[in-house]
Amino acid sequence: MTDALDATDPLAVAIVVIFLFLSLCAALVLVTVAQRRPQSSLLAVAAGLVLLALVVFAVLPYNVPVLLGAILAFLGVALAVLGGNPFTRWVLIAADGRTTEGPRGGILVELAAEHSESRQEEILRGGTTIGFLERASVALGILAGFPAVIAVVVALKGVGRFSELATPAARERFIVGTLASLLWASAVAAAVWLAIW
Description:
The chain is mainly α and 197 residues long. It has six helices and three strands. The model has no long low-confidence stretch (mean pLDDT 85).
């Protein structure tokens, strides 16, 4: 009698591949729907699907065939990159619901002037684009077997944004947003990496 968790059984591998494919597709659909306005229920289900896939492949030692692995890798990178935006915005809203987004994707902060009234200035502009690039870098780095790319991304982001981190609101948003974005990309990429390597 064969073991029910036999990683060489074609039927078991097919079931696991279909499970991962459907999980990633469902999560991608959910985060795409939540793209305009982060909705807790959709993002919680998407995050749950990613975590479930991560746990399944951490526990069960399945290796997906190369062609299917390439398809799953492409789907995983798409989910890591696109899904990180609503997930990160959702986390930022949960962390600090009072931060106002500016018209160019940054945040509006109050800057106090010595001899005049305080004024609002938009800082951390381009965060959405930078987030897409950082998640793509992290996901591709993890899938390529180079998880140290996370340190490179954090270092580059820190150096590039250093001058804009003068206010507590900017520092908090930078740290929370970066960690949420990297967590999402790392979890998705790790689930796919465990399946294909």
